[in-house]
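To fix ideas, we reproduce below a protein record of this kind.
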Amino acid sequence: MTTDEPLYRTELTFLLGLAYQLVIGEFLRRVEGYDDLRPMHGFVFQALRGTGLTSTELADRLGVTKQAAGQIVDDLEARGYVRREPHPEGGRRRLVVLTDKAQAHLVAAGQVLHGLEAELSQRLGRPEFAAMRHTLARLVRELAGPTLPPLRPLW
């Protein structure tokens, strides 16, 4: 493959989107035991890591309505991946937190992603892979500035 190939002249947004789609697709083929989850759920799990969020905070983080966030939480709660707990500050608010089942998924998913990255690094060449990561990080920092936005699914 040479740099004369049309793919090398393709718009950056298309290349980034295609690369993301292909990496996520390969990840989904490799992760086992979580057929009931979709890539969107990974965004939810990442947002809830740590101490959790209220449904309103989750909606804001995901860029969806409160009703949509509530439906996502209801679905994941029914599947045993999240639970609602009283908010530590009291009141009527509830905190949505990950269950042990979700934590186990994050561990399994992390192992698969790290293995996939190691394989891609070997296939592309370690220096090239490191340079790509560095350049993408610079691009993100250049566009985002000092505060990174939350990673959101494109609905």
